[in-house]
Amino acid sequence: MRIRVTTWSLEQTSPADLRPAAPASGDVTITRAGIPSPEFSRFLYTAVGGDIMWTDRLGMTYAEWEEVLSRPGSETWVAYENGTPAGYAEIEAQEEGSVEIVYFGLIPAFRGRGIGGHLLSYAVARAWDLAERRPGLAPTKRVWLHTCSKDGPHAMDNYLRRGFTLFDTTVEEEPPTVTPGPWPGSHP
Fold first, then answer.
1. What is the Cα–Cα distance from 83 to 26, expressed in whole angstroms?
2. Are 145 and 104 in contact (CB under 8 A)?
3. Alpha carbon of 85 to those of 18, 26, 45, 47, 136: distances in Å?
4. Vertex 137 angle, CA 134 and 141, to 5°
5. Buried-most residue among 128, 140, 143, 175 (CB within 10 A)?
6. What is the C-alpha to C-alpha distance for residues 126 and 32, in angstroms, rounded to an integer?
7. Which of 148, 142, 150, 188 has its CA nearest to residue 168?
8. Mean pLDDT throughout 169-182?
9. Phi first, then psi: what are they for 97, rounded to 5°?
10. How far separated are the first and last CA of the chain, in Å rounded?
């Protein structure tokens, strides 16, 4: 049996496109993970993506994680609530001033609390000013991402409310996959 997956690609072509969300309430901070850490990034990847079928990085070796995280223009921004990781955004510079939001999401227990819009707004702003922190990179001309029908039910709406516009849609059939989560008994 195969599952039908729709993938939507979205973009912003000017910093003026960003429509920031209100800051999250409570003690929410967003910090760049300044030292590439495969262990921490893999934790974030499985904690956020375990229930929404993120599997493309599960087979990566430690060295492959190191290589991805150490690329020039690769940054991981982590949202914390009261000191606890709540979610993350991974951005990566590409050719000709393009920056991709490669991964974005929240750990299930932190969804629905206003953190996602705030984190996405912050990550998009960091994608737009990436060249200011990374000498040698071309100034950002485009920020883009993709989401799919396997992602959370509010993902697309969050992207559209932040000012992204759709530029491509694809539909593919995929085999069902086993994910690392959710952890039995964890937050729904």
1. 11
2. yes
3. 25, 14, 12, 10, 31
4. 115
5. 143
6. 10
7. 148
8. 82
9. 75, 15
10. 26
